Sequence to fold (268 residues):
Amino acid sequence: MTEHARFLLDLTRGRRAAHEQQLAAWRARDLDCHVDFSRPVVILDLANGRLRPQYTLLKRAGHRVVGVDLVNRTGHDATALAYRLARWLYARSLNAAVGDGRKAARSDDALICGNVTALPFRDASFDLVTSVAAFEHFLDVPRVIDELHRVVRPGAVVWACIHLFASPSGGHNVTLTEVPLRTLPRGIDAWDHLRRRRLPFHVPLNEWRRDQFLAAFERRFDVVNHYCAIREGEQWLSPSIRMELSAFSEDELTCAAYVIVARKRRAA
Fold:
């Protein structure tokens, strides 16, 4: 079975929906003291992706959500059709997961095709920015953060979950079907992307480390929380690999999903 086939199977079985709901639960917990969700919140879903899972969940919760991504363009090729099927499967599994029979919110009525380094929004437009597994792909992270600082209101919050490059799945070669990564395909070495690089990168990766992301956010925002949300790879971290990758701490090598919660400073 190919990885894409397993991915579609995970969608039909509800595994992807369960994972996305877990992310949403972490976000709700992290923002409980920082964002008033008793009223509709104006949210920017940064780099929403082709599947648009968090966009769909946030819309479903009754918020005003805008998604921005270069993939938000109309297409009729095989890839576009495949993602339409994936979104339909995701919506169906989401309905099954909540068990209340409601239909998932439309996910195409506030999607903007735009560049994250030049956001097509006015200053101080949003109460909250959410981002999942996107910052590791941005090739000019400081500029993206500058743009976020511009488009959010004073006191607004950015919640970013970053797939760290130093993790076993950080090279994005074996991440399609397992979150967190628990098994390695035959013939693939753990942390190949940090060691021999036998596998090519198929997507843009900035290769930033955890402390680089933290420092970049601290330059423009007040970081109110940061933590490792998902760990993986402890079973592969042998003494020889630890020695080979001594430039990285064990904590860094096993943190796959790193969350940063940052607030824009209010005017004095």
Summary: Confidence is low (pLDDT under 50) at residues 1-5, 98-107. Strands lie at 42-46, 64-68, 111-112, 126-132, 152-163, 222-231, 255-263. The helical segments are 3-13, 15-31, 53-60, 78-98, 141-151, 210-220, 239-244, 250-253. The chain has one domain: 18-77+94-263.
